[in-house]
């Protein structure tokens, strides 16, 4: 079974619920690490670390974080080694964050993104592979670039 980890704060809760239902419908096992109802919202800076840690430890290959704009979640998640979180507001950005940057966490804004658009963005994020549909020279460049970024990360985290 396909597995994914997801989380939101109160501002992202309605979109997260729509995305979660969509993922379950597609056959995903979804671990929800964030706000569970509108009465008991968790702040973005508490939710993002839980999801990011699971990605960093390779418990999951991909994750989704949703707050008001998606930006707070991305800022916090990107503090973790091996986490590449990208804010996406449309399917084109979702495709490119995977194909070019090999992002492993999608972040979205519940104030910005409609439910139907969020589900389409998630589909593009989950179904695009690193370097997919790119010219061979660009695939080679991006593969080398990804290794350079990992080298930078090793220098920062000393691992």
Helix-strand blueprint:
Layout: E1 2-8, H1 13-25, E2 28-32, H2 44-56, E3 63-67, H3 71-77, E4 85-87, H4 91-99, E5 105-109, H5 115-126, H6 136-157
Parallel strand pairs: 1-2, 1-3, 3-5, 4-5
Organism: Agathobaculum faecis
InterPro entries: RpiB_LacA_LacB, RpiB_LacA_LacB_sf
Family: Belongs to the LacAB/RpiB family.
Give your account of this protein's structure:
48% of the residues lie in helices and 16% in strands. It starts with a strand and ends with a helix. The chain is built from 6 helices and 5 strands; from the N terminus they run βαβαβαβαβαα. It has a 5-stranded parallel β-sheet with strand order 2-1-3-5-4, sandwiched between helices. Helix 2 (44-56) crosses helix 3 (71-77). The chain has one domain (2-130): Sugar-phosphate isomerase, RpiB/LacA/LacB (Ribose 5-phosphate Isomerase B, Chain: A). By secondary structure, it is of the alpha/beta class. One of its GO terms (molecular function) is intramolecular oxidoreductase activity, interconverting aldoses and ketoses. Belongs to the LacAB/RpiB family.
């Amino acid at each position: 079974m396909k597995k994914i980890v997801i989380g939101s704060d109160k501002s992202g809760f309605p979109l997260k619920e729509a995305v979660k239902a969509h993922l379950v419908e597609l056959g995903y096992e979804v671990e929800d690490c964030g706000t569970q109802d509108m009465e008991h919202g968790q702040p973005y800076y508490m939710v993002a670390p839980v999801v990011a840690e699971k990605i960093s430890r390779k418990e999951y290959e991909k994750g989704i974080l949703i707050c008001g704009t998606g930006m707070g979640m991305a800022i916090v998640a990107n503090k973790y080694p091996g986490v590449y979180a990208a804010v996406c507001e449309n399917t084109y950005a979702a495709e490119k964050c995977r194909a070019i940057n090999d992002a492993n966490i999608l972040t979205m804004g519940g104030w910005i993104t409609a439910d139907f658009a969020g589900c389409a963005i998630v589909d593009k994020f989950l179904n695009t592979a690193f370097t997919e549909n790119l010219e061979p020279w660009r695939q080679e460049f991006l593969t080398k670039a990804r290794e350079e970024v990992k080298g930078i990360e090793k220098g920062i985290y000393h691992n």
